[in-house]
Automatic annotation (TrEMBL):
Gene3D superfamilies found in the cross-reference section: MTH777-like
UniProt xrefs under InterPro entries: MTH777-like_sf, UCP006600
Species in which this protein is naturally found: Methanosarcina horonobensis HB-1 = JCM 15518
Name of the protein: DUF1890 domain-containing protein
Matches recorded under Pfam families: DUF1890
Amino acid sequence: MAGAKVLLMMGCPEIPIQTSIALYLSHKLTKLGFDVSVAGTEAATRLLKVSDSDGYYAKNLVSLDKTLEDIMEKRDDFDICFAFMHNDAGMTYAATMSAISQAKLYSIVFGRNAEALAETIEFEGEKIIAKDVHNPLRLKNKLDKVVEGIIG
C-alpha cells in the first residue's frame, strides 16, 4: 500500500484532539511511504499551519472544498480517506466523500457524543470511535492498529 494516496479530511476544529491526531497520522503515514494530503475547513487548516509552521508533519495541506470539487469533477481521487468527525457537519463531509470517491473510508468519530454519532452513520466504511475530547492517546492507539492493518 506504500505510495497509495491518502486524504485526511478535517471538519470544524472545535474538539482539541483533532489537530494533534491529524498531525500525528499525517506524519506516520508519510514516513511509511504514503502520499498524504490533509484537507480541512479554513479554521482547521489555520490551526495546522500554526502548529506545524514548517510543514514538517503535514507536508501537503489543501482546501477541503477544492479537494471535494476536484474529486467530483474527476480531476483527483484517493485510495484511502480518514474522515474526522465529531458533529453532523463532519459526517456530511464523510458522506459526501463516500458518494463521490472510490477511496476506502475510515470514519474517525471522536468527542463526548462519539458513540451516538457513530450509530447514525449510514455509509460504508470502518469506524474508529473514541469518546475523548482532550486526551488523544486512546484514539492514537486505535489508529496505530488500523494503520498496521493497512500496511499488512
